[in-house]
Backbone:
């Protein structure tokens, strides 16, 4: 593979940033400092990172309830992300969206999404839009194995296929739809098999190997940019944490968890970098230190930011109507 | 240029005008291309604009609406046609959880200029899944605007505004009105959303009616006039935003209100209008507000039954007379 050391180090930085962001989010949630729900991406970092390393700022992504990793990999700013998680006015969505609805149109992030499978349709719309406007933008649609049983998945693959849209469907198969093991929620082992029904390429890749993900995504994205239409990439991965923070995860046995922890994508990339003289242990330590500092700053920014004024509750529903305040 | 055209043609000509003005306006939906739309509304637009801009889709209502959301979020101005208003149920997640909420959830940092056209209403003997009036479901959702014209002129002026709007607009069209014709000034300014029209002036009772019911209300008014009752007929034209001022002005004058819609009465938008008047103009009312709506049944098939459950001018006359 013709990956430069810089690119590899950049991918390491992204993965580590996601891991540390999520680890901090778990702590803050446990301490009661972050309200609501959080769904963490720990263990799946190689997928968002390997895919987004191929994207330009102008490209689009749609994301899921487990969206922090996608947003960081697409260039999201940790300050505004934490501020959103804390419900502050400086957050990406002025505190109106929260963890499940972070979006940044300037970076092509069309939103995390609280409805499983909803991003598929929106991704097709973005892909159609790129093609209509004659740009070379692509849209990556991230989703979990659970969502491939929604009608939206099938409708979207069909539409993207018949119209040859520049959409890359990236399934993060982490083996569970909440508590339900894949073997119980669908009668196939490889989600990628479903590509056959839509006459598009279906690729299975080790989702904990960022280099493999990068390579598969590069090919699919090139195809999409060249007008050859969509690809379904299935990344086999695992979430280290529960579906949401607080999930007792009684549905998974320890042996399975242990096996997957051994396949941790970040440790694997570190080993690769050390073995191939991409970086030294000191280099990695330095990067880790910078990330820790960035996260500390981001949390400080978030916690020092004000909550939104209550009047803001009736704003931003429409471009031209502010609802009445009736209290 | 003033022309006599149908309600259906008025919608088509409005779309044509906007598509000529702005290359980012396009249509998508089932059979809207060569076939011209199931009710013929898109007609020959494909001849002028081609298959990219008048795009046939598979039968996937969720994906049609979702595709419009994604396209609108990335710079286009889609007009999605769902073949029947009843089929909006299939696309409801994309409308309610996505289109309506995206701007808000994202802190106002996105615009979604999209129109969803919904052929609605009963009277075509199409039975329970092809005849409903689901405006209450849609007006219930903050983030959507809902339009429902009653005449070719209004349909033309309102579709122009709907396409120009930077928010998701539900454009309901009454199927029975498609063939009705009237004069339309094709050079008119767009009719702003949220402006009602007084279709008939009167001093004695205010009849607020939408879409096909406007015509029933006007017919009823002629009957009532024979008995010396002069009804004022108000067509809100846009259900959200609702032109409360025009309604209030009339209520203050007549002190009596009848609201006529084709929805089933339970949970209807007619009830919402009644509640608004009660909350804000109670002191002006001389009688309880009356709703004349569809009976609380699915729309039956047999013409005898369908005609029985849908309100008509006679029902309106009876309702008004009871107030005097």
Residues:
């Amino acid at each position: 593979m013709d990956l430069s050391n810089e690119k590899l180090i950049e991918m390491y930085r992204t993965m580590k940033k996601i891991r540390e962001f999520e680890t901090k989010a778990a702590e803050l949630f446990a301490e009661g400092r972050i309200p609501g729900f959080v769904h963490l991406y720990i263990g799946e970092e190689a997928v968002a990172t390997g895919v987004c390393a191929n994207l330009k700022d102008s490209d689009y992504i749609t994301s899921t309830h487990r969206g922090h990793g996608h947003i960081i990999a697409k260039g999201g700013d940790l300050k505004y992300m934490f501020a959103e998680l804390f419900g502050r006015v400086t957050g990406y969505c002025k505190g109106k969206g929260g963890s499940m609805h972070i979006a940044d149109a300037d970076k092509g992030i069309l939103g995390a999404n609280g409805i499983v499978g909803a991003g598929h349709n929106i991704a097709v719309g973005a892909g159609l839009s790129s093609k209509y406007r004659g740009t070379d933008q692509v849209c990556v649609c991230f989703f979990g194995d659970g969502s491939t049983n929604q009608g939206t998945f099938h409708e979207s693959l069909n539409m993207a296929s018949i119209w040859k849209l520049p959409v890359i469907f990236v399934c993060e198969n982490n083996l569970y739809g909440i508590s339900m093991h894949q073997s119980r929620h669908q009668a196939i082992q490889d989600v990628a098999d479903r590509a056959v029904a839509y006459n598009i390429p279906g690729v299975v890749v080790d989702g904990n190997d960022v280099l493999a993900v990068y390579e598969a995504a590069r090919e699919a994205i090139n195809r999409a940019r060249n007008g050859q239409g969509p690809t379904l990439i299935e990344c086999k991965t695992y979430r280290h944490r529960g579906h949401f923070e607080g999930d007792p995860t009684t549905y998974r046995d320890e042996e399975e968890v242990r096996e997957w922890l051994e396949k941790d994508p970040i440790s694997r990339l570190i080993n690769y970098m050390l073995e191939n003289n991409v970086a030294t242990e000191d280099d990695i330590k330095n990067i880790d230190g910078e990330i820790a500092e960035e996260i500390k700053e981001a949390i400080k920014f978030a916690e020092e930011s004000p909550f939104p004024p209550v009047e803001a509750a009736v704003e931003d529903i429409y471009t031209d109507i502010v609802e009445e305040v009736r209290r | 240029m003033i022309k006599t055209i149908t309600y259906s043609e008025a919608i088509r000509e409005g779309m044509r005008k906007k598509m000529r003005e702005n290359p980012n306006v396009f249509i998508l939906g089932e059979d809207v291309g060569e076939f011209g739309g199931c009710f013929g509304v898109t007609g020959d637009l494909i001849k002028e604009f081609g298959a990219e801009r008048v795009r046939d889709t598979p039968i996937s209502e969720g994906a049609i609406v979702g595709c419009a959301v994604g396209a609108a979020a990335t710079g286009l101005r889609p007009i999605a046609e769902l073949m029947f208003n009843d089929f909006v149920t299939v696309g409801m997640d994309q409308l309610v959880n996505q289109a309506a909420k995206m701007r808000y959830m994202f802190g106002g940092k996105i615009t979604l200029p999209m129109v969803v056209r919904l052929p609605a209403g009963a009277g075509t003997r199409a039975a329970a899944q092809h005849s409903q009036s689901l405006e209450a479901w849609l007006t219930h959702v903050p983030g959507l605007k809902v339009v429902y014209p009653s005449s070719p002129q209004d349909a033309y002026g309102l579709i122009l505004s709907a396409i120009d709007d930077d928010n998701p607009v539900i454009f309901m069209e009454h199927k029975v009105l498609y063939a009705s014709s009237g004069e339309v000034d094709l050079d008119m300014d767009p009719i702003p959303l949220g402006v009602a029209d007084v279709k008939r002036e009167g001093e004695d009772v205010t009849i607020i009616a939408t879409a096909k019911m406007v015509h029933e209300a006007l017919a009823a008014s002629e009957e009532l006039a024979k008995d010396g009752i002069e009804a004022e007929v108000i067509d809100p034209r846009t259900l959200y935003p609702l032109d409360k001022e025009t309604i209030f002005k009339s209520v203050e004058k007549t002190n009596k209100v009848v609201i006529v819609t084709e929805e089933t009465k339970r949970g209807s938008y007619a009830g919402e209008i009644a509640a608004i008047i009660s909350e804000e103009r109670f002191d002006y009312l001389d009688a309880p507000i009356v709703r004349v709506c569809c009976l609380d049944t699915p729309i039956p098939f047999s013409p005898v039954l369908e005609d029985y459950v849908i309100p008509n001018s006679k029902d309106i006359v009876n309702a008004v007379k009871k107030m005097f």
The mean pLDDT of chain A is 96. The CA atoms of residues 84 and 97 of chain A lie 7 Å apart.
